[in-house]
Task: inverse folding
């Protein structure tokens, strides 16, 4: 007999990378510290994508161990495998290898929050039914200690039939090495024992999965019996006959819903375990609890909420200015250098007016975007965002929704796309669609560049009391978006989407210090997405617009003889009008003048009109387009875009950007749906073209209508 | 007495749950089952929704669902 021996090459030093072989799924309750642990284990070796067919984000990363490496799949945070939500379905399907393109994991890393061990053990108990090698990471162990909770991990391991339990602190990194060590051997662990919490159910499941044959895994039978997976429930009735399944269910669940009986049975086992392993189980946590309860006291909470919002918008304006000045200075200097080096010709104009003026005018908003996201990420990670849903339930009820719609709506301040996906937690379809249609009204980060440009150009930078006027106007625009969203939800919920009063239930996370590494990674990610858009979509549009604005070239001689202007009269004025005339007769000018009549009632000239039209696929493009149009259409590049906007005139010499026109333009941007990604997401999430078409027509109409009323009424005053 | 009748700061034991409301099942999945001790943490402006704490967790729910939980209140210690 020859025994194959493995040659072990000693691994030393940093930099040796193993090829990931097995996959392990990371699973746990929401807010259990899963993403922090994921970042701790994978570092920056991670990728983000989507699971096929659904809009659940798929995070994957490689975990380097001493002798091997494996692929860690981060699954959505869930409380149970019962629910019918997409997140729960995906979590089960991935662990069972039912998802295309995702390999079946060879083990589970279950994250249990030591301060919320009650709900953690419940999920674990359901996961054990999957019969996969399992390891437990007991997180927040330091928070638990600070709360006076001591957990006997050895006893827990024993009660769980020997499943390895590793206490870790993601903050200090304590226990991570032991966990990694354990992960190295995860595939050698035998399938876990099923806890004896519900023997008659367990036996029935066991018996049926043997009787039904190889197609049926134990978890399939369980999901069929509990009616948590309609396909399997149907298949079971087909194979056994509906009558026998009915008899079985009555025997197991009586007349109650299966999920209620399951919760009762499993939690009674959990309570038994907790009694054994935990001394002085607290009713509620002490750490941060007083703070949190204070922040939930009705009136202080309301005040705090508005104070937080105001702080965010003030910071977006005041903190970003120095960094924006640097970017602005750099990009105009670069433009001048190019013009000086190449002289005035098509190539230098392409680089300076097309690429730098176009893309640069969007990149300049990176500091503001990052500040906004920093606040949103901190608010999310501290648990404050979830807390606001409790506070805002009342408000949401007056428009026919519930506090559950608050998180999607607030996260729309970042971007409507993930927030539309976040509406999946809303169980009722009507409430969900109403929230989806309200979300794009919230001021997303792509609107920020337009607001910032127009506010900086037309709102004086002065103080009102201890507040900044520009910040206040921005705050007002955010309120305008909220108003539009809530009004829309109310309208829909009292007409097309009328339905029963929604439930509202939500596990409220407690206050938690955000983790620096997690915040940094999320912020970095956001910055990367923004720059990527600037480098692709916006770059492309800026080039297109430059081509349309630069060609065809005008014949200067014929222009001069036609207008009677000669170069000798006034060099500067001539160059200026030459540039303007060239612009007017370019392709862009011709297109712009064709569509100008549509937007003339709003006080927009053909330049603004064409910039707005170009912004329909992605609204931040409008700033790039304006940057290019005003760069090509002027002779000097040492003026900033806002200065150029301030001095833009109609042919008869009147200013284009008057106060009513600017206010109208802002309202148009507050309400108009200029985002192809949002439309595609609405289409995907509602599974029909009806809602995205409705949203687009509806939002564009009220945006246009709002701008029209403001301009016309404002011009009369 | 039901969960909806508790004042902020009251603690009580969940005695009997009416499982006919699907909203109630969701709360049971979050751990609100018979025989556990809960504490009324907060009541929002206007008396609804409620925030209930148990085993270190907080859950918010509306009065409508809270009425399906029959409770027995634990008398407060006189010193508190």
Result:
């Amino acid at each position: 007999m020859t025994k194959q021996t493995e040659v072990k090459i000693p691994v030393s030093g940093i930099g040796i990378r193993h090829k990931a072989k097995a996959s392990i799924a990371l699973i746990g309750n929401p807010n259990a510290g899963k993403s922090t642990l994921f970042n701790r284990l994978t570092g920056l070796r991670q990728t983000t994508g989507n699971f096929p067919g659904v809009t659940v984000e798929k995070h994957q990363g490689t975990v380097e161990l001493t002798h091997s490496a494996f692929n860690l799949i981060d699954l959505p945070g869930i409380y149970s495998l019962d629910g019918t939500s997409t997140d729960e379905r995906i979590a089960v399907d991935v662990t069972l290898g039912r998802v295309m393109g995702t390999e079946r994991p060879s083990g589970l890393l279950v994250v249990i929050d030591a301060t919320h061990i009650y709900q953690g053990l419940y999920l674990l108990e359901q996961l054990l039914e999957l019969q996969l090698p399992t390891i437990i990471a007991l997180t927040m162990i330091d928070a638990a200690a600070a709360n006076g909770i001591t957990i006997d991990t050895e006893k827990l391991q024993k009660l769980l039939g020997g499943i390895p339990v590793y206490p870790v602190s993601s903050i200090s990194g304590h226990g991570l090495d032991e966990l990694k060590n354990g992960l190295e051997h995860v595939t050698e662990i035998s399938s876990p024992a099923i806890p004896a919490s519900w023997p008659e159910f367990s036996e029935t499941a066991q018996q049926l999965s043997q009787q039904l044959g190889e197609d049926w895994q134990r978890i399939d039978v369980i999901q069929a019996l509990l009616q948590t997976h309609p396909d399997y429930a149907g298949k079971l009735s087909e194979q056994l006959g509906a009558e026998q399944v009915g008899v079985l269910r009555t025997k197991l669940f009586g007349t109650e819903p299966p999920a209620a009986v399951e919760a009762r049975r499993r939690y009674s086992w959990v309570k038994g375990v907790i009694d054994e392993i935990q001394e002085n189980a607290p009713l509620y946590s002490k750490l941060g609890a007083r703070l949190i309860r204070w922040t939930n006291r009705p009136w202080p909470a309301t005040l705090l909420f508005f104070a937080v919002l105001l702080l965010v918008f003030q910071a977006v304006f005041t903190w970003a200015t120095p960094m924006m000045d640097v970017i602005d200075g750099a990009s105009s200097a670069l433009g001048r250098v190019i013009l000086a080096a190449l002289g005035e010709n098509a190539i230098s104009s392409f680089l300076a007016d097309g690429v730098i003026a176009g893309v640069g005018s969007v990149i300049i908003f990176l500091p503001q975007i990052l500040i906004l996201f920093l606040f949103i990420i901190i608010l999310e990670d501290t648990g404050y965002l979830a807390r606001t849903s409790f506070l805002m339930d009342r408000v949401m009820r007056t428009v026919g929704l519930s506090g559950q719609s608050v998180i999607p709506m607030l996260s729309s301040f970042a971007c409507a796309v993930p927030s539309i996906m976040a509406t999946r937690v809303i169980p009722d379809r009507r409430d969900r669609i109403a929230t989806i249609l309200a979300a794009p009204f919230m001021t997303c980060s792509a609107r920020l560049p337009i607001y910032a440009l127009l506010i900086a150009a037309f709102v004086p930078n002065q103080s009102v009391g201890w507040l900044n006027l520009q910040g206040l106007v921005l705050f007002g625009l955010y309120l305008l978006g909220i108003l539009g969203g809530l009004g829309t939800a109310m309208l829909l919920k009292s007409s097309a989407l009328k339905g029963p009063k929604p439930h509202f239930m939500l596990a409220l996370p407690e206050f938690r210090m955000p983790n620096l590494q997690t915040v940094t990674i999320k912020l970095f990610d956001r910055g990367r997405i923004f720059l990527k858009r600037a480098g692709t979509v916006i770059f492309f549009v800026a080039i297109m617009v430059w081509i349309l604005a630069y060609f065809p070239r005008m014949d200067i001689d014929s222009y001069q003889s036609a207008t009677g202007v000669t170069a000798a009269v006034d060099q500067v004025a001539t160059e200026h009008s030459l540039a303007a005339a060239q612009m007017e007769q370019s392709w862009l000018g011709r297109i712009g003048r064709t569509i100008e009549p549509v937007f003339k009632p709003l006080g927009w000239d053909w330049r603004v009109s064409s910039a707005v039209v170009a912004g329909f696929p992605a609204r931040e493009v409008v700033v790039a387009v304006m940057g290019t149009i005003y760069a090509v259409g002027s002779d000097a590049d040492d003026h900033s875009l806002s200065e150029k906007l301030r001095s833009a005139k109609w042919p008869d010499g009147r200013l284009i950007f008057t106060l009513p026109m600017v206010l109208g333009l802002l309202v148009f941007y507050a309400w108009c749906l200029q985002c192809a990604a949002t439309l595609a997401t609405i289409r995907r999430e509602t599974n029909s073209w009806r809602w995205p078409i409705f949203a687009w027509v509806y939002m564009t109409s009220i945006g246009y209508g709002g701008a029209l009323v403001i301009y016309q009424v404002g011009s009369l005053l | 007495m039901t969960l909806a009748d508790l004042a902020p700061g009251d603690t009580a034991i969940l005695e009997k749950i009416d499982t006919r409301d699907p909203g109630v099942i969701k709360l049971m999945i979050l751990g609100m089952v018979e025989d556990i001790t809960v504490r009324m943490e907060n009541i929002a402006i206007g008396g609804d929704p409620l925030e209930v704490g148990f085993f270190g967790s907080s859950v918010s729910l509306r009065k409508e669902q809270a009425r399906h939980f029959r409770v027995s209140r634990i008398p407060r210690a006189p010193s508190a």
Summary: Residues 15 and 45 of chain B are 27 Å apart (CA to CA). Chain B has one domain: 3-74. The domain at 3-74 of chain B is CATH 2.30.30.90 (SH3 type barrels.). The longest helix of chain B spans residues 22-29.
